[in-house]
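FAQ

Q: What does a record look like?
A: Structure on top, sequence underneath. For example:
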């Protein structure tokens, strides 16, 4: 029997329900803030990621689904979407005017990573990108949207871990200090790190190897090498976060695993995910648009791991609420025809109802309904047709009452006997 590919999952049932709720809540948050959705292809030319995420990164070195297509093109199944969105924004001349562009996306990403809890080879991200504004104010606008969206979903223990990784101008001084530190104990680092120090010293900070992390004790900090403007930028970011009551902690060791960040970098870790797993990551990337062939336009953004967020919410809040759908059970051919017309009227009026279309007798239809956890069955037989009613049967209590057909939409909206107790998804 065929199985899904290792690291790639089918989403359904309770987990799917959380995905839907998260996506609905995210879309509402994005729309409140004036962000517009963008959907880019899953396949991008390889160059898009080599020139952005960076040659020294694990993603580009080890994790990309990269291949030559039948036409001889070098392509990659996107490991992230910031570079793809930037590629699209340049291609469609979003930067022809200097107006800010606020974009969001929801979609699958692909990384050939080693399997672990909460780490998949196809995973989903929700992301937001703000182009054209270099101020800390734009960052806070985006972070407040993220914070409030996560709170709306029911997460309370939120803390942003923030840092400034400086600019390409102030980085050489840090790199020199860091290289000197590294050389003084080079033998304590893994082979990967000895390669990383050549390409991008900051990647060493990101090594997952415990002995490398130990060898990093007392290393020089990028925050001690920031230029005046980066320092002021970081100061205002913190001031605004304080004003808005967004909780954060400074983490001078935070560097992130992608090469395009400038100044602000941040993550949200969740203790519910076990071993230091990040739920959200992002930051400023002022050189990226230019690096990918566009004008000199600043950018800031973040992505949430949807799979991880769904896991956390399941742990914190239990099952996502299910909307309740009554089952309309007709008995006999005349009732079946009437039931189709009736169901159509209910759907048109916006009422959920499911129709039993198999022509089962009442006993069998009710047995299925019970098995599926249906709470309200609407029975329509010859007798009910003659009286112009449906028999509303509450399967949890066994109680039954006649509801006039003309009054059905009203009853479903306002309820007889406590119906509806629809737990809304909003
Ligand atoms: P990232 O930190 O590589 O950033 O990924 C963001 C989030 O995606 C992570 O915090 C995590 O929740 C989720 N994620 C990453 N890899 C996996 C995986 N293998 N399985 C499950 N979830 C995963 C980016 O991708 C940047 N594009 C973020 C960004 C947007 N920066 C600026 N704008």
């Amino acid at each position: 029997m065929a199985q899904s590919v290792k690291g790639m999952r089918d989403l359904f049932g309770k987990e799917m329900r959380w995905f839907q709720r998260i996506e609905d809540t995210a879309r509402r948050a994005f729309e409140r803030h004036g962000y517009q959705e963008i959907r880019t292809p899953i396949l991008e030319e390889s160059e898009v990621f080599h020139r952005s995420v960076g040659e020294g990164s694990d993603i580009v070195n080890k994790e990309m689904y990269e291949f030559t297509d039948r036409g001889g093109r070098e392509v990659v199944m996107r490991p992230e979407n910031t570079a793809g969105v930037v590629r699209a924004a340049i291609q469609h001349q979003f930067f022809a005017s200097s107006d800010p562009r606020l974009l969001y996306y929801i979609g699958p990403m692909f990384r050939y990573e080693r399997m672990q809890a909460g780490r998949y080879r196809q995973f989903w991200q929700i992301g937001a990108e703000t182009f054209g504004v270099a101020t800390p104010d734009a960052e806070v606008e985006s972070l407040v949207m993220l914070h409030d969206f996560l709170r709306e979903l029911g997460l309370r223990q939120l803390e942003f871990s923030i840092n400034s990784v400086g600019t390409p101008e102030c980085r050489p001084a840090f790199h020199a200090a860091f290289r000197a530190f590294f050389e003084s104990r080079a033998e304590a680092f893994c082979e990967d790190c000895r390669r990383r120090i050549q390409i991008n010293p900051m990647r060493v900070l990101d090594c997952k190897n415990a002995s490398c992390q130990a060898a990093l004790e007392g290393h020089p900090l990028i925050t001690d090498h920031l230029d005046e403007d980066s320092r002021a930028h970081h100061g205002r970011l913190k001031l605004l976060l304080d004003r808005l009551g967004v909780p954060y902690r400074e983490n001078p060791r935070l560097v992130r695993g992608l090469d395009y960040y400038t100044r602000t970098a941040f993550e949200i870790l969740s203790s519910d995910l076990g071993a230091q797993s990040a739920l959200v990551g992002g930051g400023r990337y002022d050189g990226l648009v230019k690096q990918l062939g566009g004008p000199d336009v600043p950018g800031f953004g973040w992505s949430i791991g949807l799979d991880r967020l769904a896991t956390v919410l399941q742990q914190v809040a239990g099952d996502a609420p299910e909307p309740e759908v009554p089952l309309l059970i007709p008995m006999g051919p005349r009732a079946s025809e009437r039931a189709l017309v009736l169901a159509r009227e209910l759907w048109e009026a916006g009422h959920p109802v499911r129709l039993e279309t198999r022509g089962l007798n009442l006993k069998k239809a009710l047995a299925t309904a019970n098995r599926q956890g249906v709470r309200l069955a609407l029975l329509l037989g010859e007798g009910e047709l003659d009286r112009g009613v449906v028999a509303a049967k509450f399967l949890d209590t066994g109680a039954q009452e006649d509801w006039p057909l003309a009054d059905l939409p009203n009853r479903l909206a306002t309820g007889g006997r406590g119906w509806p107790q629809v737990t809304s998804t909003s």
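Q: Is there anything notable about this one?
A: The first strand starts at residue 36 and ends at 37.
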